[in-house]
Amino acid sequence: MQITDVRVRRIEKEGKMKAIVSITLDNEFVVHDIKVIEGEKGLFIAMPSRKAADGEYRDIAHPINSGTRDMIQSIILAKYEATALEMADEEAHEQGQGV
């Protein structure tokens, strides 16, 4: 399985959720609504979930093993960090032109 596309939608509001991500697997299957969250130990991902009748949230889709979760998380967080750098570069460029 290969992650062939990662789309990051950054969240501008204050709070722990920093982005919502969609990934494409093997150019054939998309998983939407993966969340990038700021935790006590840094950024992590939360898989798409739904609130069950008992009030608990349960993942709708998730990796079966920790190796796959780690691989998905590292790819998503790398893309998230890259978009953060792109945004910082764009802001710096815009500020430089306004002078």
From TrEMBL:
GO process annotations (BP): division septum assembly; sporulation resulting in formation of a cellular spore
Top-rank lineage group of the source organism: Bacteria
Pfam annotation, one family: SpoVG
Stored SUPFAM superfamilies: SpoVG-like (SSF160537)
Keywords associated with the record: Cell cycle, Cell division, Septation
Function: Could be involved in septation.
Similarity annotation: Belongs to the SpoVG family.
PANTHER family assigned to the protein according to its UniProt record, in alphabetical order: SEPTATION PROTEIN SPOVG-RELATED
Name this polypeptide is given: Putative septation protein SpoVG
Organism lineage: Bacteria, Bacillati, Bacillota, Clostridia, Lachnospirales
